[in-house]
Amino acid sequence: MLTGVASRGLPQWSRQRSPGLAALAVLLVLGGALATTMLVMRADERTSVIRVTGRVGAGQPFGGGVLQEARIADDGASYWPWSQRDQVAAAVATVTVLPGTLLTRPMVTDGAAVAGRPVRLGLALKPGQVPYDLQRGERVQLIHVPGRRNGSEGPALVVEEAVVDAVSYTSGSAGQATVIVDSLVAPVVAAHAVSGEIAIAAIRAQP
What we know:
This protein is of the alpha+beta class. It has five helices and nine strands; from the N terminus they run ααββαββαββββαβ. The chain has helices at residues 4-8, 19-44, 85-89, 111-114, 186-194, and strands spanning 47-52, 67-72, 92-93, 108-109, 118-124, 139-144, 156-170, 173-182, 198-202.
């Protein structure tokens, strides 16, 4: 049992709080509140832009069915704002746009601005890529048929309507055709043709 002298010699815990710790606690609380406020403010700054939900080929109109609103934490300067969706729906794509793409300004052009600028484009063809009896003056569709290296992709319509300007035959089948297409889609068609991934489908009335 401790004597009175021994008990008075034991160390006593101080109940006083350090001013520095109190100030630190206050700063932590204020910092958390400030961070929360900034997050709320950043959420308010998100911009509504246009996202494409379906594939749109170069030279094809967008239409309203593939346009969707997307919210991004950006000033939206390089993207088409959602408020201009009606204007985009009436425009055409300058490049092939894949699903999930946020539309930027260069991807869209006024359909009237590119109309009436036909170019003649030569296509080297293989058997099976063109009707055997293709004739000059026929209206045709140009279809991208991916090769084995792009097996995950399916055929896609590149040009809805083109006109055959000339056809040459080799061994009884068309080996080369010159078609008239819009200048906007000509580079896309040419790229597929060089890879041997373009097919011609004649637009003909039912007999």
